[in-house]
């Protein structure tokens, strides 16, 4: 039993953190919004050069073979920076899923994405409007009982407007040509839904932490009644409540990531738990952060909403709190004897 | 990161389980806040000690087994699953014990830790005073050094377990000229000492779970000072950290409540709305999160880290969770949620726990004080 991170896991996190601090400023995100081109190809290529996009591919395929725990730490940083490019989606929903896919689809994906430098988008009933299809080379699409892979050029789609201008969404009208399969559908569908839940959970924890940090800084800076507003208990307690939520959501993320790594049969429950807890943390972070900022928090000018908007979108997709609750309840009532104090690990 | 139990840890779990199966009293003990129940619980402490189970993390020479925090968590899990009696000496084993280990000298450790493990000394807490509740630095009870002893005068209140306990530990003002948190010292006082008067205070459940302690020229030997004269605040903060952080409320307690809540819900689900189902899920999710977080913290401590202001986060989390779970249970019970006769109704245990859960956000430093600590020490907001 050792719940500590390895040096290597922390090194991946810290390298990415400092990269994003330099390369993913809120100004650069706003530039993407103004140009209506939120996907910054220059930054995507730098992330590819850094090795992040292929980081969890096996070494024989040009990656570092890093594990899901390290990925979860890295994805939290992508949330913290509100990174617009779909890096988390690529590494967690495509790279991490590849070993489970049948050879026909695996081959297509490998040919298309060239060790990760081309983006492949994902659509699923829980997240039906794929991200950045315009910028993608292909799409992995999950239906009710099958899944298929198509090249972007074979898809007819129209743009949708997200409340988060950093998310370029599309609606798929039709697919002219694709490779389809229903092999081991239940297993693969559960695997991708769980990864979607955990991925959005990791991003939400990063976003919640960022909103808390921004609010703490603002509360130190803004004065009223001759004092920083952060000296008033009404503000302190609101932000402390957010810190509590984040603290107890974070370990659920690492446990879920460890369950994927460890092939734990309860990985789907653990991923649902992680999304449930982090969505609740992010929800409170949004509410209390905007309140701590007062009217400034309600403006377009203040950076806070860059993070809030992303959090609102991510709470909703890949199964919101309500859907995760459903998964948890079904598991609790179907195998009651295997949950609880003796079955945490 | 490898969050699985090792083979050795599982063998240890089996050992704990088999011992508890044989030794946990088949019939529940009387309430520990009655005189007779208190002595029954003292007997149980002695039974635990006979198997060397008083505090597995303590060194062997002080009555422990010299095991790590992960083993302690495993012990606690088995303890709650076996429905073993509440630890009447939790002020001692979970709070003073770790404090003695860090700040006590060799004589103090061998005298007090062994007697604590044996159930010979049951401890109460002596922090609050009528004018010093949340503002603990306002303490006015004095301990004046006169040669080889202190002479104590003043009053403590809300002293948990003091109605029947043997000893109390707490903060006393040893420098009469001092103000606030300076000039306080951490002193251990036998409640048998002449000049000590105990006035029990009945709690919400009608039983005297805490008491007032009056000190009238009480003479305490100088060797009962823990650490240095004037160091009391620092030592008290460490004790409070243990209390909030890890020891007082191990996760198994809440996971067990969540599991019982799920059973209760299942039994009564035809009369429940989806709102209650959602609360039952929340109970599982939060108690599980608390367990994960504590294993995370224990791992950090094993790797040489320490527990600081983070302990305030945990105290808020478990106290709110405990209250929410009991509130939910009473809602599931519907109109029978007021039936307090434990021989006939499920409700009685939930009502008792429900009332107790109102104490959680108050004791060990109110949640409002914890939020100030979080804001000032973790978020960097100004005083």
**Could you report the average pLDDT of chain A, rounded to the nearest whole number?**
96
Pair with the biggest interface: A-B, 50 and 58 residues
Terminus-to-terminus distance of chain A: 9 Å
Mean pLDDT of chain B: 94
Number of helices of chain A: 11
Query: What is the CATH architecture annotation of the largest domain in chain B?
Result: Up-down Bundle
Set out the fold topology.
The complex is a heterodimer of chains A (345) and B (383).
Chain A: H1 7-23, H2 26-34, H3 41-49, H4 68-80, H5 87-95, H6 103-113, E1 119-123, E2 136-142, E3 147-151, E4 155-161, E5 168-175, E6 179-181, H7 185-221, E7 223-224, E8 227-228, H8 233-261, H9 267-293, H10 304-316, H11 321-334
Helix pairs in contact in A: 1-4, 4-5, 4-7, 4-8, 5-7, 7-8, 7-9, 7-10, 8-9, 9-10, 9-11
Chain B: H1 7-23, H2 35-50, H3 69-81, H4 90-103, H5 106-117, E1 123-126, E2 142-146, E3 149-160, E4 167-173, E5 184-190, E6 196-201, E7 210-221, E8 225-226, H6 232-245, H7 251-267, H8 274-302, H9 310-333, H10 347-357, H11 367-378
